[in-house]
Amino acid sequence: MSEASTTFPGAFVVITEFHVKADSMAAFLDAASDDARHSIADEPGCRQFDVVAVEGEANAVVFYEVYDDRAAFDRHLDAPHLKRFQAAFPALVVDERPVRFAARHHPHG
User: Is the residue at 41 inside a domain?
Assistant: First the structure.
């Protein structure tokens, strides 16, 4: 995942997009779900981690992740469950788009 050069106020949002091989969707979703589950359960700074299949775009999957701040996301980069996902996904995807960073302004909390 790439580095963000800007500090955002409020919740730190990470958006990652994948184009998954047609015959690998089930394996990809299993690996992604493991990462998402453990992010929420094991990382106090992870507020939300959605794995989303994009309607109308065959084999497109988006991760929408919300962290307390950039430091919480940086801790996520060293998590064992992310290492598992990073080892599994390259064989399952056609490509990964550049990671985007954003700030969530609503809802607050």
Answer: yes
